[in-house]
C-alpha cells in the first residue's frame, strides 16, 4: 500500500494576465508533460 503524501495544502486560482503568460506557457510547454510521452508536443 502506498503512503499518502500530503504536501499540497493550498491551491490558488488566478486569472491569466499578460504578467503571468510567460510562466503559464513555460509550465505547459516544458514542465507539465515532460514524461517522455510520444504525445508530448
Mean pLDDT comes to 79
β-strand percent reads under 5%
- Tell me the overall shape: flat
What is the string of SSEs from the N terminus onward? Answer: H
Poorly predicted segments: none
Number of helices: 1
The major sheet is characterized as: none
Ends distance: 34 Å
Radius of gyration: 15 Å
Count of β-strands: 0
What is the helix content?
25-40%
Secondary structure class reads mainly alpha
Describe the structure.
- With 41 residues, the protein is mainly alpha-helical.
- The protein is 34% helix and 0% strand.
- The longest helix is centred in the middle third of the chain and has 14 residues, at 18-31.
Could you give a short description of this structure?
With 41 residues, the chain is an all-alpha fold. Helix content is 34%, strand content 0%.
Chain-wise SSE layout:
Blueprint lengths: L17 H14 L10
Amino acid at each position: 500500500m502506498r503512503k499518502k503524501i500530503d504536501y499540497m495544502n493550498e491551491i490558488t486560482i488566478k486569472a491569466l494576465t499578460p504578467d503571468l503568460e510567460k510562466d503559464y506557457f513555460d509550465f505547459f510547454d516544458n514542465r507539465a508533460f515532460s514524461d517522455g510521452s510520444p504525445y508530448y508536443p
